[in-house]
Amino acid sequence: MTAAVLPFRTRVALRAHAVRAAARRTPGPRAVRVLSKVLEQVGWFEARLGPALPKRVAGRWILRPMIPAWPSPAYDVWLNGLLQELDPVGTTPPALAAVLFAVTRRCPLACAHCSAHDELGSKEHLSREQLLAIVDSLQAHGVAQLHLTGGEPMARFADVLAVVAHASPRSEVWINTAGVGLTVPRAKALAAAGLRGLHLSLDDPSPARHDAFRGLPGTFSWVERAAAAAVEAGLVLTVSVCPTRELMDAGGLEQIRDLAAQWGAHFIRVVEPHAVGKWSGSDVKLGTDHGEAVDAFIADLNASDDGPNGFGDAWLGRKVGCLAGGWRVAYVDSDGDVRGCPFATRKAGSVLDGELSAALTQLRAGGCARFGVPKVPGLATGVSTVAGD
Q1: Which residues sit opposite 339 in a β-bridge?
Q2: Nearest CA among 344, 311, 312 for reference residue 330
Q3: What CATH topology corresponds to 98-320?
Q4: Which of 291, 271, 370 is CA-nearest to residue 325?
Q5: pLDDT band at 121 (very low <50, low <70, confident <90, very high)
Q6: What's residue 380's pLDDT?
Q7: Does 65 sit behind a cis peptide bond, omega within 30 degrees of 0 on the bond before it?
Q8: What percent of the chain shows pLDDT beyond 70?
Q9: Which of 70, 121, 275, 389 has the fewest Cβ atoms nearer than 10 Å?
Q10: pTM of the model
């Protein structure tokens, strides 16, 4: 089966939407110029990542996993941020398109690869009010996607539900979860509050090996139930896998692909191992051959509309450079401090102390040691301060 394409009327409506957004900012020839820059950037990404493979879920189109679903208020925030990046107007800062936000330090698991291992504990450092204040500050910087992580977000369900409701619909909200505690009623409550989807972790197709990797018996069963709950609630389902060399050599990625398709997943996300947290000092990096195998795996997923499509953090880095590090993506930890990504240990400042703008500038100056500065045409090179930030 060939890759999916948007229906003609949808393509026309999507382009008309962009034209209206550009014209509202800067009418006349300037709007035409910025739209040409948008098309240039879209073409640049497609030349490196392949054409977008849209998925229609709950009446909205997902063009790429890193772009909010269309039509939606969050998509408008993302589009306006892109226009501002390509053609700055006034003092509005270039948008920080997505943020991963660790909303809890609690977790019932003991995962072998946990990057947040040293930060976990039973006592939260951020109150519900502080969580919501951080969301407000992030949205002042044009955050279009908010990915809630931890810890295990389901371990702090009431507060997570409040964060989802507070952030939506201005930001599109996702949850990164191991599935433990995600029941059908909870999935439906999250969907009603505005949640777009889940990144559901599955690290081995064998229930016994997955449970051992996650350090909690019964975790695989929770993944199965959480997947079913997400689909029933109308959420976008991404199966997220952290593949070791051993898993790949045993054909584990292909088996996880088959499980994800069986569960009705829309996407598979490959998060390659990093020697941080519990894996600090360990030889876990995939290396060139396995990295190329990941790229081939994702390319195969994206060659067809039959089953889930694929993407990955390192896959994206190899293609376009690192978009994290404060360029388009950043990480806020469970203390409210800003880092380049969940695998970066350097803290650049606190959102709660009004240091977000300065922190993003500092992160951008540092760059990514592995993938370097992104080479996206038109990418902004600085961040302005927002009043009251």
Answers
A1: 331
A2: 344
A3: TIM Barrel (3.20.20)
A4: 370
A5: confident
A6: 54
A7: no
A8: 96
A9: 121
A10: 0.94
Helices (H), 155-251: 157-167, 184-193, 207-214, 219-232, 245-249
Q: Token pair of 322, please?
A: 């690192």
Quick check: 187 pLDDT over 80?
yes
So what's the pLDDT on residue 388? 31
**Which whole number is the average pLDDT over 136-151?**
95
pLDDT in tens, 43-98: 999 999 988 888 999 899 999 999 999 999 999 999 999 999 899 888 766 678 99
Distance CA 327, CA 339 (A): 12
Angle between helix 29-49 and 73-86 (nearest 10): 100
CA distance to 271, 282, 317, per residue, from 244 (Å): 10, 12, 18
β-strand pairing of 98-102 with 145-149: parallel
What DSSP element (H or E) covers 83? helix 73-86
Q: Which residue in 143, 99, 137 sits closest to 389, CA to CA?
A: 137
The DSSP symbol for 92 reads P
In 3D, which of 250, 324, 246 has the Cα closest to residue 287?
246
Q: Is the pLDDT of residue 383 over 80?
A: no
With CA atoms as reference, report the closest residue to 326 among 364, 291, 295: 364
Locate the domains of the chain by residue range: 8-82, 98-320
Tell me: pLDDT of 150 over 90: yes
Q: Which two tokens mark 39? A: 């098309």
Q: Say if CB 277 and CB 115 are below 8 A apart.
A: yes
pLDDT, residue 27, reads 87
CA torsion sign for 27, 28, 29, 33 is positive
Question: What is d(CA 134, CA 111) in angstroms, rounded to the nearest whole number?
Answer: 27
The Cα 258–Cα 218 span in angstroms is: 21
Distant-in-sequence, close-in-space partners of 363: CB < 8 Å, separation ≥ 6: 325, 326, 330, 338, 339, 340, 348
CA quadruple 165, 356, 381, 91: dihedral, nearest 10: 80
Residue 119 binned pLDDT confidence (cut-offs 50, 70, 90): confident
